[in-house]
Every structure is written in C-alpha cells, then in structure tokens.
Design a protein that fits this description.
two-stranded parallel sheet; 288 residues; alpha+beta; 27% helix; 12 strands
C-alpha cells in the first residue's frame, strides 16, 4: 500500500474490472485447484466480501484474518507495534483451513497459467512431508519498467533450492546489464537474464505448519523489542533447507510475471491484460 497508494489487490485491471486475483483464480481452476483461502486484514473484510465472495462457481472460497495481535498467549504485544508480522505469519493464521498439499501466492502478482499448471502437477505427484517446491522465474521475466524492484534471487544446486536472497534495487540499465544490492548494501553479482527468481509462489505440505509454529515462536523471542521485524516465508524456508529439514525442488517456469509495485505499473498491467484477452488467452469477461 505504501508504494502503490491503495489496495492494489482489490483494484480492477481487466477489461471488465477484474482484479489480478481473478486471473490467478481463473488459472488455478484451469490447473485443477478446487479450493482457495484468502488471508486478509480485518479492515478489508467489507470490501473483500463485496468484490470476491459469491463470484466463483468452480472453486470453494474461504477466508481468514491476519492481525498484529494474533500471537501465542505467552507473548506480550508492544502497544506501539502496528506493522503486520509478515508472510510467514500470514500463512500460519490459515493453517486450520489447510490439510493437503497447497500453493502459496501473492494477491497482487500475475503469475501466468504455466506456473499454476507446473505447481499443480508437483503437488499431485511429488509433494511430501519433507519435499516442497518453488516455481522459479527467469529474472528477465520479472523486471519492472516503472522502477527498481526487490526480488528473491535463488541459489540452486542439482535442481534444488539452496537459499533465497532478498535483493534490492534490481533493474536493467541502458546497456542491458542487470544489477541489484543485498540487504546490507553490497552489489549483487552474477545477475543475468536466466537467474532463477522467487516471486513468493511456493508449493508446500501441511507438515510445514509445525515447523513454522516452532520457528515463529523463536522469532518472537529473538525480536521482542522490534517494532517492524517480519517473519518472512522465504527466510524461513531458506533456514529449513540449511538445517536439512526440507528440500525444495526448483520448477523452472517460462511464464511472464507482472504486477503492481508502483502506481505507474497500473497502466502497464491493464495493457498486458488487454493484450492477453485480445490474443484469446482469456475471455473478455472472466466471470458471469
């Protein structure tokens, strides 16, 4: 919201006011998914119900809330803390609604149908209690024309993820070179068009929740005086891999990602969706 200036997850970008989430759900249904769980803030409930509930016929829709006070009973919340606890916490609040292998996505990213199909195939055939997966995008397919972006740069070995490094100020210069910096300001080297990138799309097993519960409590103990610290899913998954608790298969996807980080991205997204409709890849009106 801070960089974009509004609730981009609920804004209409398609020819008939479709949200980006609408396209993700449409692609998910085509790939065989039959249930979706939204994690929303309590203050978004009225708008969410108006826009999303009752819209979809071929998929079951549920939702739950993420608020800053949804914490273990032993934790004393600092009254000055207002920032949400991050993507790992968002997933934990949905754990009671998930009991089979599942896919995690952002609500403001267009992932492309190929990525949903690749993810669905893995979840059906290969996902186990200790084997998860990540659909990885080519870096050239996830840059923004509107400014620098933050991206999760993946280090891989033998087809499996080693770690995800949050990389900031990623952009392509006039000479075509791609650059970025690490969290502590060091240049990120060896970035190329085919560098694998995480866009917060993860194939997980319900067994993950016990690990997340345990590590979130550890996070709270270590960050009790931190007002802005976040328990982030990519960081947690990287740590689980480093400890040998899980492995994550890298699923290379050729899909073209786009999303709305900046206000300037909105017109770009609308134009790309219009082009996809004109090509016949999506109907002009997704839902009746």
């Amino acid at each position: 919201v801070s960089r974009y200036g509004g609730f981009k997850q609920m804004e209409g970008f398609g020819p008939n006011g479709e949200t980006i989430i609408d396209y993700s759900i449409y692609d998910a249904i085509k790939a065989g998914f039959d249930n979706v769980v939204f994690v929303i803030r309590p203050d978004m409930e009225e708008a969410f119900r108006e826009i999303f509930l009752g819209k979809y016929e071929d998929i079951e829709v549920e939702y739950c809330f993420q608020s800053v006070d949804m914490l273990p009973n032993w934790y004393e919340l600092n009254p000055e803390r207002t920032k949400p606890w991050g993507t790992g916490h968002a997933l934990l609040v949905a754990k009671d609604k998930i009991n089979e292998p599942f896919l995690v996505i952002n609500g403001d990213d267009f992932y492309g149908r190929e990525s949903f199909k690749i993810a669905a195939d893995f979840l059906r055939k290969e996902c186990t209690e200790d084997t998860y997966a990540i659909p990885a995008y080519r870096l050239e397919n996830v840059l923004s024309d509107a400014g620098t972006v933050k991206r999760g740069v993946c280090t891989t070995k033998d087809g499996y993820l080693v770690r995800i490094d949050e990389t900031f100020e990623v952009e392509r210069d006039e000479e075509g070179n791609i650059s970025g910096v690490t969290w502590d300001g060091k240049p990120m080297e060896n970035l190329s068009d085919d560098t694998p990138i995480s866009m917060n799309m993860f194939c997980l097993h319900p067994s993950a929740f016990k690990k997340f519960d345990r590590d979130f409590e550890k996070f709270l103990k270590e960050n009790k005086d931190e007002l802005k610290g976040e328990y982030l899913l990519p960081v947690e998954l990287s740590e689980l891999i480093s400890r040998g608790e899980i492995k994550m298969k890298v699923l290379e996807t050729p899909a073209q990602w786009f999303g709305v980080t900046y206000k300037e991205d909105a017109d770009i997204v609308r134009e790309k969706l219009k082009e996809l409709v004109e090509k016949g890849e999506y109907p002009e009106k997704l839902w009746d």
